[in-house]
Each structure stands twice: as structure tokens, then as C-alpha cells.
């Protein structure tokens, strides 16, 4: 290893000091320094438009001004930073405002649990609770689901590379086909029901069924409203807890605060994280129907379940949901992106593309192996941050901040088209 | 449920809106609002001395001024908040300074992995890596270990209540007796070795052995240096990866930066979190010997593995380790607390107390069921925040910020003595 | 408990001294004493025609004369009874004759393993071997499969009541839909393949796929030849070991010695038991392709893997396979039974019956809950032993000895029709 | 492969047609043809004295005359061979006589279950029942335990080679140190209790504890009576089911019918197989206290749970237990063997031997690697069949039929001494 003295380039720092597990830095090989709204700047001052938004953790953009202001004030005034699950004013304010702004207007009745500050924490808490409530062992999840990297969440995640990373067999879960996994003509819930109703199917009645309404990592796969409704009915009929993992699709990414609102369903448990703090800082909540709040005190815990800086920004972020403006914007921009993608598919048949998505969670699945990755690479050279999704990284994924300007959105889309042209020529 | 209007008391907020899983708020039934150094204030302005320090997440006290300053500046300048594992200047600075200030002076050679921002994330990453490196399944952990609440970490955690919360059998782990678990006359590693060497023992050669040098949650149980050295020898001889979980005992809690330094061992993997950010905000790192850095890119990931606000405070916190001042202070204060506790045990035989601990991680195990909890309760009424540990909450635990003033330390200790007197009288 | 003196009735013996787990005695509440060919007699001398044949363990009828003669001679001459896996002349003779009469004429090349004397022993050995050969963990089995009651076999058995009996979650297996599980229009192997080919499906590449060509316990479900061929192709393409569990369908039950012969496939492993000894006494063999014979000596063992009395009768039983006579008989009788059942379905629409089966493994699935059981009950009263199958015991199952006379077969079928009439009237 | 024509030597038959998993034939490379009492003859007419007795399956010797007579008569009269769990006269007679001769005189009250005809079947049934009765998951077993090769039994077997054969991690079991595993000065039950009583031990309260009073395969390790008594007390105190696996040590091998009689304990479940049929043919029973007979009908089943030929010989074998003659003989011969072994240890210090055992289940553990195997090899050349035991095959094991003549016993012992001399010289 070279001495620290020689580490003049910051990329060299990562190569020499950080583990090989690092990943996105390989797609975006620069060192970022500053960010604002829909933009990042690297340390050479080059600006990038962000169509990635922290994988859905930056729905309100980088460092949104009102949140930033509250955060600075709270820190400056020596507000409590870390509180485990003691009572703090910051937490009380969040709970109250979340109830008033989010739950009450939607006629939803949930208790809020702070399970630790990440997506996988909320998912693991949901699995525990479903098992405790029902006394059953297994969880049904879906093909191409992504729920997290700790052992419980990994056992319900579809990706074989991630699963293999566990190093041990993953247990107590059954993978069922997501909507349209078997083609557009097959209602995959027929299959699921057949397994539930046949006493010899080898699939036990599960404690819970966990689903993302739009699978982000899995390839921007959208579950139809009717499919979700039927899934909720099935859960209800068989007394299975329905768990919506809204970690990526929630907080307005698809237009409504909860991604399941258009389907008109009421999940038993909802998992939220990523954009819930609104500032890209760690926070997660688990929402549970009061009748299922059978936890013993401390039965699930975690050092950072009381991250008050996050409570401050999360509370301020709820301002976005006091009216329908943001929802309207997402719908509008989403349609724009969707139409643009449809047009790309038509105009560039070499893509063999399939448009996917809902709200501002969109993408195109490209048939040719490696093509989506090449398009992202070209886009990055042109100043656009965009990533792939899907089991074979076959989808390029458009997930800008919901607050992106139309201008920046148009610029980004134009970069994509340029990048496609470049890739197709080659 | 009452309407929000009626929720005038903040405690009522928690009762009505937060899940029953909340725990510490039941021991400390107030709403905290502000904190600084070794003190917290509730919303009525009452001050509390903190002998809990966020369960070890606040080693440098609440809102340490220099860290706060850097944090405010970084936020004000729109430094990047969230970056997944992209390269950022904040991360590069942390990596460089951690290498210079911590690793190099100790002749330690580790790659740094960012596994997600909590203790259980780093532990889960360590388990995966040990399994990948060795191709083996099981992990040996110790009685009364606490490693986290997600399924992998829970499988190596001793506490039966927490384990039961999993709702499924926990697998691929074997629990062995921690130092002195079988009394002071038994070297429990004889037992461990016997199991390893006998081909019929029913205990397979494990991928790794994970251990806390001082078990915090488990009851302030201290592993002797000789025991740790022998454990390291055993791991070396059998080609088992030695994983030190320094989440609670690290970052100076026992006097040295790493808790294992006095034992003179070099673990293969080190798990750190809690006080690594220095500001009570979520961050974790996994240190691994370069020869074991066999991760594929992205094989373990997580949304909040790039929490740059934490990188900023963590980098500044390393200033504490540029000289021996803090270590010296911890030693001095630790001895003071230790002597005080010894004296309590002598003077109050009704405690049937046993003094435990190292550095500023101390406590007394009380024989009578419920006594330690009562003492904490009394202490809280007198303005001291202190918690219990151990499988039956039988230990009251003294873990103030390392930076506590001698004055406050003395005041806190006096409160403890008063509380004991009160409890014993009853 | 009454004293032994009072136990005058033999049924009382079972009630008082045998565990509640006993099962068939509840359907056939008499004490049997003697048997020959297709008949049993109870201790009162009443004769019963046997349409059950020991659940497929008595394909050549009760106490077939030539086997009986060999058995008596061997015992009389003090042939070795028990030999573990030492070499005995009885075993050598079986191995040689099995090779000559069964394997060579079919151009099959298998090594023979003696895994212990029961069906579940051979299945457990097959699972171990598939895992060892491939280094993979999981096994794919099918809905309504029945493979045995020990933990490994149970994990690939579909029946929820049996699975629940394990008392622990069953692991390392995935249940896929058997042929026609999703209706006659769906090729369920499309589904299986979709899961194998998608890297995000959550279903890992398995070590092996285990299948019964006709599911006996599962409800006399027949896999089509084309389905089996395609399954073999899939296994071949993905380098998955194909395991045929021929415990019930083998030894001529469907007409050919191996049930998979008509499909023209060559499984990698074949599990046989039940009728392999030919005399209803415990014996099992596992056939494996020589290239997969990677066992270490003694890696799988068992006290009764050398049951020489069974080797004697099994060797003699191979005489049935020196020509095509028996196969021809099974075909002829099978067709007769099939036509009779079709006719029943037509003539008794109240059955809402569905004819199932192949060879002399036939039955009718009745829609009305409990109807099949009632028919069996009536049949027993009329001197016919017949049992149900299927996850809800909805199929009455016709499995007489292959050697049954046409006369007895006709009598038995007539009893069934009478029983149906009786049940429908009620 | 050679054509069948060329397979003139019977050993060649095994090499070419049988799987590599075969084991004992490698220690005893001949083909056996006949057996009687304590003798076997190979096909060349050479006689061997049997100090192995089918690993405990031939306690009454090969083909004991009275049993043979009953067996021949029953077969000749067309007694029922195979009956699943229907009622048969043969089973009724066994149940009644077992109750009268074995249970009543010992004041034991057990229901009898027929779990399938092998040791691993009875063990798997015991595990299921313990889990059902208690609602708990895990089973505690002991170091160097051997309980069988199917997945449930394998999970509680100590041998690492056998365990590894599973190909998947073995679960829901905890291995605790058997008596004297940690040396003669350590009461290993202190250790077990410490784990049970500490709520943070990581070892859950188990459903059952399963133990062999003398570990046969594990190295002829004897549990002291006091240790067994204390174990029974522990089980009673913690409401854990005590399961005695008497498959090898039962049926008189240690002098009494049940091996646990001298300890004066009453297990909740007893597993028996091997010599229960008395003729070396497959049979097993599970004894359970009536209050634990909570099985649903058919919850555990198996094709060969009604092996009536075995019931016939097993019933006749009970004649041995109508008086104390056999017990007395075992004691006498056992003492003779024990003294002889003690003398060997004294006279041949090169053995570095340790005498082990009880009744006619004896042996010497030799320190030098491979020595015990060499002694067995030499003994075989001299006409004695003897095997090794222990995790490293370090024990040569003396387990003749209980009915061996003093003459043959002396001859066998003399062969052992000769073999030792030969091995030591080398």
C-alpha cells in the first residue's frame, strides 16, 4: 500500500482505503462535493443533473431550503440529537404532524414504530410483528422484490446475487410471482391462491405477504391496482397480514404520499424509510394497525431509532403534503417522462425497449445485455446521474427529485436520448 | 382514540400515536428537549446528568462544540447529505483521517466498509464476509452477547426475550460461555476448544467467532486480556475469523480507541457504530483485513451507507485521538468510578453487589430481583439518567460521556448513593 | 387403565396399549390374521379383497408362493439375516440379478445403494447425494408430493398436516406446481422455468428436482409423458439432478418396472422401496448414475441396510420381470379398471367424479367433502379394503395386487359400485 | 464396466454394482453366507466369532432357534407379512406380551408407537412428539451422540463427517457435553444447567433432551447413574421431555432390558430398535408416557411400521425377559470382559489404553491414531469380527451376542490379545 502522502487523488483514497464492496462509485467515478435541488457538483465544479435521487431517498431534492433552515436552527439551539426511544419534543412533533397531515386526511389509523433508521430495520420489524400476531413462520414475498440486506429482509429479496451473499440458506419465505411475472395474460394471484387453498401444496399459510407496489430495484415493475386490491382481499380472507414495503415507492414517488392510495387498500403494516426524513438522512418508520400493536416494550430495539435531526426535517417535509401541489406536479412530470419514454421505444427500435413505471419512477427495459448500463455511462459523461435496475441491470431508471424543474427534467431527458443514439451507433 | 386537539401532554402523544414497543420512555417518563455535554433538559427545563450516553453513542457528550461547528458549516454550505456509496469529499476526508489518526499509529491495516449506518448493519456485513471467506455456515458467539435486532445479528444475540421476538428459530449459530460465565475458576475457552477439537462434538468449525470485549447490554461483563489473547490464538490456529463487535465498547469507552488494544490482538474484522459519528447520528463501519476483502461490488449495500453529515462529525471527532488526553481522562475517571462502586458494595451489603467493568463502562450487579431497576428509578427522580443491563436487568450501569466533568461525575455518583440508601430502607 | 386380563378383545389391545397415532385400524376396525394373494382374513375368518395392497408394498400379492418358498428355505438353512453393509451371498445375488433382469435390458446404468430399508431412507439418501454432487442447498419438489416422514423427506412433502407434524419450519425446499395443478390448460413447467431463468425470482438453482410420475398419496395425479420429458430436459439444461421417487409407482404398479419407462427418460437418481422386496418386508434401494457415486464410505448408513431376508424375496421377485407377462396383465387390468371408473363417473353424476390414474394405480376424485371416505367405509363393510388419497382424502384409490385374478377384480369393482349407490342414496 | 459373465468373484460384484458408500465390507472383505449363534461363516466355509453382533441388532445371537421356529411357522401358515398400522393378531400379541413381560414388572406405563422399522424412524418420531407436546423448537443432544442418518436425527448426531453429509446446515439442536466430556472432574450438567438458567445464554429452553446412556458409535462412553438421575431431575424441573435413545444400549445390552433401569429414572419417551425384533430384522418402537400421547391419527406414518414377521420374533424374544437368567449372564460376561480389558491396558502400556463400557458393551480407547483399526484388522484375519467406534475410530469395541458361550468369549478375547501383540510389535 502506498503511504497516505501519495494519495493525492481522491479516487485513489477509495481504492486504497475502502472495501471492494463499494459500488456506485464505479458507475460515477468522481468525487462529489456539493448538492442542491436536482444538482450535484463534483470537486472540480462540474454539475450533474440527478435522475437517481439517492435511490428514492431525495424525493424533495438535495438540501431543500426549508428543511435545511429547520435543521440548522435545531442544531444551533442544541436540540437533542440522539435519544434512543426516550420522549423528545422533536419526536412528539413529528408524531403529531404525521397524524394530522398524513393519516387523518386519508382516514388511516396506524400506530407509529421507530424500528431503527433504515429500510431493512423497518422490514425486519414488520416480519417479526407479522409472525408474532399470527403465530406462523413463513412470509410470502414476490419475484424481483428488494427488501434489504440483513438476514430477515434478504430472505424475502429475490435477487440471486444478493441472496447468495448471505452465505447461508435463506429460510421461512416463499417467493410468488409478481404481477405480470408470467406475462400480461396470466393473473399471478390465481397461482398464489391455488397454493393457499390446496392443503397439499407444500406452501403453508404465511404470517404475512409483503409487496412493493412498484418494484424499484427489481426493474420498475408496476403492480396494477386491481392486482393489489385482489391481493388485499386474499390477505383478508386468509387472515394474512398485508405488508406494503413503501420504502422506495412511498413519500410521493408515485404521486400520492403512500403508493398504495390509488388502489384503495389499507395494508396492515407499512414500511417507510428513504425519503421520510426528507433530507437524505437515516430514518425509518413502521406503521401498524392498532389491533396488531402487540409488541412487548423493547422487543425490537436499536441504537439509532431516535435520530432527532431526522425527526426535525421529516416534520418539516410534511409541509409538502398539506396540499395537492406536489402530487399534481409528480403526475404532470410523470406523464411527461412516460410519454418521452414511449416515444424513445418507438423511435429507437434497436432498444427493443419496454416502458415501465408510474409517477416519477420510470424506466425502459432494454433487451440487449449491457445496453442499459452503457446508456447510463454515456449519460454520466454528459452530466446526468442515472442508474439501472432489474435482475440483469436491464432497465435504465428515471427517478429525479419530485421537485425537479421542468427545465432540468427536459435537459436530462435530452441527455438520455443523446446517450441512446451514441450507444446504438456503436 | 382522542382527537389530536386533546393531546396536550406530550407523553399522551407517545401513548396514543407510538407503538407499545417503545421502551426507555417508560423508565424516563418525560419529554426531553435540549442537551449539551453531560446534560439533558426536559421541556419543563429540568436538568439531568447523563450516565447513559445514548447507550454508548454519545462518548463525546451531547452536541460537542467543535463537531457541531463543522456540522453547521457543512449543512450551511450545501455539502452533500446523502450519497449511497458514491465518492464524496466528506467520505474521502474521513477515510484519510481515520487511516492517519487511528490505524497507522496502531500499526493496524484494515480496509473500511460502510455497511449501512447502524450496529446491526455492520454485524450482518461481518457475518456475511466471514461466511464468504471461509465457506462455512456457522458463527460462534457468546452467552449474554448483544449484536443487534435484525435476523442475522439476533441469531448471535444471547437474550432469550429478544431472540423470541424473531418469531422463527434462529440458526447457524452456536452459543459458547463468555469469560467467567461458569465462575471465576473455569477458563471457558477450555470448553470451546474441547468442542472444536473433538470430531464428534456436534459443533462444526465455524466461519467466525464474534465477541464483545466488554458486554454492555449483557451485564458489563469484562473479558480478561489473557482470555482474549487465547481466543485470538484459537481463531488463528483453526483458521476462524475473529470478529470484535466494538459497537459499544469501542471509540474510547474503555480508555483506548479500540477496546481490544490492551489485549494486543488484531481481529480479522471489527464492527463499529454508536460513537463513531461522535454526534449521536447514525453511522457504522466494518473494518476488515485487506486479505479478506473478497466482496463483489454491491454484494452488501444499503440506502444510508453514505450519510455524509455523520462523516463530517466523525472526521472532526478523530481530533480526540490525536493525543492521549482523552484516554488518560477515561482511565482516571474510570478508576474513580470503580473505587466508588467497590466502596458501595462494601458499605451496602444489602446490595449483595458485584462490581463490574472497565474504563467508563461500569456497574454493579445486584442479587435481589428488581433492585437495580429501583435504584435507577430513584436516581432519575434525583436528576440522573442511568439504565440497567444484564439478562434480568440486574446491573445498574454507569456510562457517562467520556468528557463529563469531575464535578458532574461526583454529583451523579452521590445521587446513586442516595438512591441506594432509599431503596435499601424500603 | 384396565388390567391385561380384561383385554379380551384385540381391538381393545390397540386402544389401550398403542399410541393414538395409529390410523388405518380406524378405517378397518378388525384384527387381521392371515393373507394370501389378493385376500386377507380377519380373526373371525371373514375374507376381504385387497384393493390397497399395502399402499403399493404388495404388488405381487400377499405371500407369493415362490418367494415364500425361497424365504422359508433361506431361514431354515440359517442364512444370514442381518449384515449391515457387509458382503453376503444374498446381497450379491440380488445385485447380480437386478443388473441382469432390470438394468441391462433397459440399457440403464446405475450403481445400487442400500440406504436403510424404507422409502424415507432412500429419499433422504437421494437428497444428500444431490446436494453433495452439486454443492447446492435446495430441492424442488411438487405440490401434493409425498416423500416420507423424516425431516428431510418431510420438507419436500406437500401435505400441510404432515408438514405441521414436524414441529419446526421445513427448509431448503421449494414447492412447484405438479402437472395440471393449475388446470389442464397450463403447462406448469413454464412456471418452473420462469423461476429458474429469472435471476431475481427468489428461487435458487436447486441441487435436485424430485418427482413421482404418479402421485399416490397426493391423489393419484398422473404426470404426462411429455411433461416428464420436458422436466428431464430442464434438469439436463440447468445441471440439476433429476430424482424419480418410484417408491409407490415403481415395481410394476403402472405396468412397466420403472414408472418412468414410457416417458423415455433416464433419471439421475431413482428411489425404490415398498414392493422391491416383493413380500411386504422392509427394503429400499437408491439407484444412482455411476458418475454421481461420490459417496465417501459410510457417509450415509443405517442398521438395517442389510436385511437379507428381503434380499432373498427381492431376488426371487425379479422372476416376474424376465418376460412381459406381468406388464401385459397390468395393462389389461388397468384398462378394465379405468373403463369401469369412467363409467361410474358417467352413471353417477352425484359423484361429481374425476377419473385418475395409470396402470393399476387408479381412482376417482369426488367433489363432495367426505364422500370418498364414506364409499371406502361402505366397501369395507362389503369385504373390500380400499383407501382414500389426496390432500382432503377426496380420492378413493384402487390399487389391488398386480396379480389379482380377474374374478376378484370384478367382485371388488362391483362392491365399489354398490357402495357408491348406498352413499348417494343417503 | 465388465459384463456380468466376468463377475466371478462376489467381491467384484460389490465393487462393480454397489455404491461407494458401502463401508463394513471394506473392513471385512469376504462374502458371508451363513450364521448361527455367535458365529458367521463366509462362502468358503471359514468361521468367524462375532464380537460385533450387528452393531447391537443381534443381542440374542444369529438366528436364535426358538425365534426361528416361530418365524418359520408364521410364514408357512401365511401369517400376514405387511399391515401398515392395521390391527393384526401378531401386533396384538406383541403389544400384550411387551406390556406383561417388560412394562408391568418394571412399573412403567408407556403407550407403544410403531414409527417405522428403524432407529432413525423412532428418533424422528420422538423429536416430533417432544416439539408438539411442548410447543418448543430445539432439542438438546450430547457430544458424540449418534441418533441416525435422516435429517432430524442427523441434526442431533455429533459426528462431523456424518453431519457434513447432510449437505445443508443442521438446525434446531444444541450440543451439550456428555458425561466426562470435559474430564472426570467436571460435572457437565453444571454447564447445561448454567445455560438453561441464564436468560441471556443464547440457548432456548428445549422441547426435549435426548441421550444414550452408553454411547455406542460415539466411543462406548458411559453416563454415570448419578449423572442420568440429575439429568432426569433437570428435565423434570424445567418441563423438558427426557428422551432415552435405547436403540443400541437397550434390549439387554448393558444387562437390564432398558439401559436406564439401574439409574432409576423414568424417561418421557424411549426409542428402541436394533435388537427389539430379536432376529436382526427391521423393527422399531417408540414408548411414550400416556399423558404425552397427543398424536393425531396418522400424523407420523410409514409403509413398514407394520412388519409382522418382526412382531412374531420380537414377541418370542420377550421370553428371554421372563426371568433374570440373561441379565445375570450379561453381568457375569461383562465383568469378565471388563477385567480382561483392564488387564490389557496394564500389560500393554503401548496401547495408552482407556477401558470403557458397561454390560456387554465394552472397549478400549487407544491413543495412537489408527491403532484400534489395526487391531480389528488383525483380529479379523484371526477369525474375529470386531469394529471400532469413536469420533476418530479410536476405540475397539466388544459387543458379542449376549448369548455367546464362555468358550467363544474366551477364544475371542485371546484373539484380541494376539492381535494387540502383533500390532505393537510392528
Automatic annotation (TrEMBL), chains A, B, C, D:
> In Gene Ontology terms, what is one molecular function of this protein?
diaminobutyrate-pyruvate transaminase activity
Entry-linked CDD domains: OAT_like (cd00610)
Q: What is its EC number?
A: 2.6.1.76
Cite the SUPFAM superfamilies for this sequence: PLP-dependent transferases
Q: Which cofactor does it need?
A: pyridoxal 5'-phosphate
**Keywords in UniProt for this one?**
Aminotransferase, Pyridoxal phosphate, Transferase
InterPro entries in the record, alphabetically?
Answer: Aminotrans_3, Aminotrans_3_PPA_site, Dat, Ectoine_EctB, PyrdxlP-dep_Trfase, PyrdxlP-dep_Trfase_major, PyrdxlP-dep_Trfase_small
Would you say which domain of life the source belongs to? Bacteria
Is Transferase one of the keywords UniProt gives this record? Answer: yes
Pfam families membership: Aminotran_3 (PF00202)
NCBIfam families recorded: dat (TIGR00709), ectoine_ectB (TIGR02407), PRK09264.1 (NF006733)
GO BP annotations of the record are: ectoine biosynthetic process
Q: Which PROSITE patterns match?
A: AA_TRANSFER_CLASS_3 (PS00600)
Record's family?
Belongs to the class-III pyridoxal-phosphate-dependent aminotransferase family.
Q: What pathway is it annotated to? A: Amine and polyamine biosynthesis; ectoine biosynthesis; L-ectoine from L-aspartate 4-semialdehyde: step 1/3
Q: What is this protein called?
A: Diaminobutyrate--2-oxoglutarate transaminase
Amino acid at each position: 500500500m502506498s503511504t497516505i502522502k501519495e494519495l493525492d487523488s481522491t479516487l485513489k483514497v477509495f481504492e486504497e482505503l475502502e472495501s471492494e464492496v463499494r459500488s456506485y462509485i464505479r458507475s460515477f467515478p468522481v468525487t462529489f462535493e456539493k448538492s442542491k435541488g436536482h444538482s450535484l457538483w463534483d470537486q472540480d465544479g462540474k454539475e450533474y443533473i440527478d435522475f437517481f435521487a439517492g435511490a428514492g431517498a431525495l424525493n424533495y431534492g438535495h438540501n431543500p431550503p426549508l428543511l435545511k433552515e429547520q435543521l440548522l436552527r435545531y442544531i444551533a439551539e442544541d436540540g437533542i440529537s440522539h435519544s434512543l426511544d426516550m420522549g423528545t419534543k422533536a419526536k412528539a412533533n413529528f408524531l403529531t404532524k404525521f397524524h394530522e397531515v398524513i393519516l387523518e386526511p386519508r382516514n388511516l389509523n396506524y400506530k407509529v414504530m421507530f424500528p431503527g433508521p433504515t429500510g431493512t430495520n423497518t422490514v425486519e420489524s414488520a416480519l417479526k410483528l407479522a409472525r408474532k400476531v399470527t403465530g406462523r413462520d413463513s412470509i410470502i414475498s414476490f419475484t424481483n422484490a428488494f427488501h434489504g440486506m440483513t438476514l430477515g429482509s434478504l430472505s424475502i429479496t429475490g435477487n440471486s446475487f444478493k441472496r447468495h451473499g448471505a452465505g447461508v440458506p435463506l429460510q421461512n419465505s416463499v417467493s410468488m410471482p409478481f404481477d405480470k411475472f408470467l406475462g400480461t395474460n396470466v393473473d399471478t394471484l390465481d397461482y398464489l391462491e391455488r397454493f393457499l387453498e390446496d392443503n397439499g401444496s407444500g406452501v403453508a399459510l404465511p404470517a404475512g405477504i409483503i409487496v412493493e407496489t412498484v418494484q424499484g430495484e427489481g426493474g420498475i415493475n408496476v403492480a396494477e391496482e386491481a392486482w393489489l386490491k385482489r391481493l388485499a382481499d386474499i390477505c383478508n380472507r386468509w387472515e394474512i397480514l398485508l405488508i406494503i414495503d413503501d420504502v422506495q415507492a412511498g413519500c410521493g414517488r408515485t404521486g400520492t404520499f403512500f403508493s398504495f392510495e390509488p388502489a384503495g387498500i389499507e395494508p396492515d403494516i407499512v414500511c417507510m424509510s428513504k425519503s421520510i426524513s426528507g433530507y437524505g438522512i437515516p430514518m425509518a418508520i413502521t406503521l401498524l394497525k392498532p389491533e396488531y400493536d402487540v409488541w412487548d416494550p423493547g422487543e425490537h430495539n436499536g441504537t439509532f431509532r431516535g435520530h432527532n435531526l431526522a425527526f426535525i426535517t421529516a416534520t418539516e417535509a410534511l409541509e409538502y403534503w398539506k396540499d395537492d401541489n406536489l402530487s399534481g406536479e409528480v403526475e404532470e412530470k410523470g406523464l411527461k417522462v412516460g410519454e418521452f419514454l414511449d416515444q424513445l421505444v418507438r423511435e429507437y427500435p434497436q432498444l427493443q425497449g419496454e416502458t415501465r413505471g408510474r409517477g416519477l419512477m420510470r424506466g425502459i427495459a432494454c433487451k440487449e445485455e449491457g445496453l442499459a448500463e452503457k446508456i447510463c455511462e454515456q449519460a454520466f459523461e454528459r452530466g446526468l446521474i442515472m442508474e439501472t435496475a432489474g435482475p440483469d441491470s436491464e432497465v435504465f431508471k428515471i427517478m429525479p427529485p419530485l421537485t425537479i424543474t421542468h427545465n432540468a427534467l427536459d435537459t436530462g431527458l435530452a441527455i438520455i436520448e443523446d446517450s441512446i443514439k451514441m450507444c446504438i451507433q456503436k
